[in-house]
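Archive entry. Fields below.
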Amino acid sequence: MDMFQIITELTTTPGVSGNEDRVCEVIKKWFRTYTDDVWSDVMNNAYARFGNPDGPTILLMAHMDEIGMMVAGIEDNGMVRIYNVAGVDPRVLPGSEVQINGKETVPAVVGALPPHLQKAGDNTKNYKIEDLLCDTGLPAEEVKELIRIGDTVSFRTFPPMKLKNNTIAGKTFDDRACVVALMEVMEILKNYKLECNVVVCASIQEENGLKGGITGAHHIDPDMAIAIDVCHAPQPGAKPVDYTAFDKVAIARGGNIHPKMYKLLKESAEEQNISWDTDVMFARTGTDAWTIQIQRGGIPTGLISLPLRYMHTSVEVISLDTLKNCAKVIAGAVQKIGADWEETLCLDD
Amino acid sequence: MTDMNMIKDIVKAYGPSGREQKVTEVIRSFVEPLVDEVYTDTLGNLIAHKRGTSGKKLMFISHMDQIGLIVTDIDEKGFLRVANIGGVSPAMYAARAVRFENGVRGVTHFETETSGFMNPGKAAIGNLFVDIGAESREEAAAKVSLGDMAVVEAEFLELGNRVSCAAMDNRICCAAVVEALKEMKSEHDVYAVFSVQEEVGIRGAGAAAYVIQPDLCINLDVTLYGDTPKCVPMAMKLGEGAAIKIMDASVIIPPVVYTWLEDVAVKNDIKYQRDVMRMGGTDTSAVQKTRGGILVGGISIPLRYMHSPVETGDLRDFAATAALLRAAAAEAELPHR
Amino acid sequence: MLRRLEELCNLNGVSGDEGRVRRYIKNIAKDYADEVWTDTMGNLYAHKRGEGKKVVVTAHMDEVGMIIWGAMDNGLLIYQTQGIDPRVVVSKRVVVGEKEIPGVIGAKAIHLQSMADRQKVLPHSELFIDIGAKDKADAMKYVERGDYAAFATKWERYGRDMMKAKALDDRMGCAIALELLKNTYDCDFTAVFTVQEELGLRGAEAAVYNVKPDVALVLEGTTANDMPGADGHQHVTKVGAGPAISFMDGATIVKREMFEALKKTAEEAGIPYQLKQAVAGGNDAGVIHKALSGCVTGVISVATRYIHSPCSMASVTDFENTYKLADAFLASGKFNEV
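PREDICTED_STRUCTURE:
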């Protein structure tokens, strides 16, 4: 499979949290290239099932939604007022190119009061979302024709760029690159006779309260789960405790992680000679894993993270090699799950 | 004709979060003649069920609890120390008359040592106390116990098209549901849930949704406004109709639901506006993530001066909301995904 | 019961690493319960079959502590934590990992501190665990990333009626729940020992789904602020004033009937009690009461000073009376009336 091509298609389709309809369809289309058993639920979580339907069920999850904004009002002069949806950092917005997903896709620039009109001292403060306006350059009547309150606003969907050393830069690699990693898992496993039943889920609204993780894990009721999300890679100003090396697969360990799922993933990486590191998190991992673990009567959960630079900007950077390695680690773990899964996951007492 | 007495009775009923029995009785008396069965669940949610034939379940949810104060200590001079139930602004709750469930009344004030006599703005909730006229701990304890709750005493004002009172959040919506039930015709099983404990963090709604498992749930709550002098910019205005929820801080409504509600409004010639609220969550979120997920929407009534004793809403928005609920229930085809 | 408490408090069971505590409890509970089992998160259930309502008593096994992030080049260990005030960890002993390797948390000597240094609160990010390792490689011989570290405080009697230990919150609840298992009540009874309460009531979320109780009684250790300088209304609870019954905290408003039933139980049985006079903080009741279709949930706590620190203190009499109150509530069948 051409990962870059799929990433390009996925990241150029808008899908702000709560409005994932379009990207959900694109993902289902790609899922169907691996299995006929593809569906989506009432929340728009997209699923693909394969493997042995009589075996234990493992849920693999990466989220499809992206951070973004929503149109909250239209000023008399046609400028568009926005609110953030999920974790947009208002500091990255001024001067950004965005698109308003209205009746048509309308490009806009995010503007704010120019520096010479600000009060002294204001330029040392960051903008708040309510200070910012989207400028489409269109006359007010046309804006009101094309755009309504409630339309989503996303970073403009420029295709990703190829950088040196098989790294790429673009928007929404958090977490659609990981959705692609799960497709790579399907690719690796497509000719392998599995003992377990695998459900891949591209979840919605991770950035807005982990709602896809909550409902998806409840819906599937798996015997175990692995989430894959991005984590921070080394970048200017970041402390070592906050990141994992760019070329290493991060395997999480801590309260959110079932000890045996950690072990399973770790062994998979070691057996394949894949460069990996432990990602220590005492509590909240801030991923779908955090909620999957406590759904129903508890679900043994592991977490793989792909190191990424500049999270939640329009120029996120990842390594395609590391992405592939993430998929290999997950695929290796899935291959190990058989009829003896309950012993594999038994706590030590 | 607006049933002003019904609105007033529901708005004025006592019912802080966790102590909703009195308001439950009032609402029950209005809904009992209108539906097939009325019951409460473990948490105290009041559920009015009107049977249908389609096999589909349509749920409305409107929280009936209000913010208030809870007594945490009585000092030797008979002053009551309090903590907040829900989002109470200490400044707005200073120098107010309050009322307990058993009818005991009192007034609130704040420690003046640091903020002076005229400036409650600096007071935190821990600096507030309630004076019920008692002169000793014993006298106070005979009237009020630790854990008792008080709500602010406010007059129900009719101001032209507008009405103003405390607890309009969210009793005006409870009243709109009652109004809608009056002549409701629906093929579906309709469950009108009057939920508890929304103001303390959306604690009642999930249990109701867990049991009912509706095909669609419409939340009724109040929303913010952008039409008072120098306020935070926001599109919603009083008198502009039922506000169809698109987003609040806790939930993003699926487009398939809000466009369906808009179509219903247009078809029935009901005035509506779009509601995008950045602050504040609603029961909608808890319902949405129940079990494997539930399709949710919301209709809001814009309300000025939220969480103050003078919350002000518009009767035309109230009427439009009731009409839209009734029209939505009458639709044979519910949105689905 | 007090000996059990001593043994429980001396065990290390930081949130996410409750295995030792669970094994200890399981070993005792199996003699009294019809079935004892562990779920995938590590919650332990001790079930005594019976007719009538499904009643659970819960206590959390986990304690506040640290997880090892890694080592510095000089061999000092970097840790993460949650819920511990950094001002209480300097100059304390800890143990690290499965093998309970001893370590200490030190800080720059006062002689070397400038006046500005002395004003500053050292954050956890500037504090380290010293296990005596020569360098990073040496440290990693003994410790794995993701190992847990706990305070090394030992349980002791203090004064006449007091005790000192780490993890009194909530090993007191665990000891009481274990003791209750010896009795027979007129209901279907389960003692649930939960994990990860300190990480956000995580274990209880799964546990309530596994048991689906009608009535729950949460046994806790809660803040006692009965210190000089705190006014009466700021005490929250007072040590020695009896079991603290909650009407509300930051996560739960207790149903009035439940709150009244607990008060009435204490009055009828002649057990001194107090009310928890603050509405902040939360415990497993916060998720139990609103889970699924809802569950009537009450909370009784033992007043505990210096909670979430290496050395907390509580009254032995309060602890024993908390057992008596829970027992009297269950024996009286009042759970049928709430």
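CURATOR_NOTE: The domain at 66-151 of chain C is CATH 2.40.30.40 (Elongation Factor Tu (Ef-tu); domain 3).
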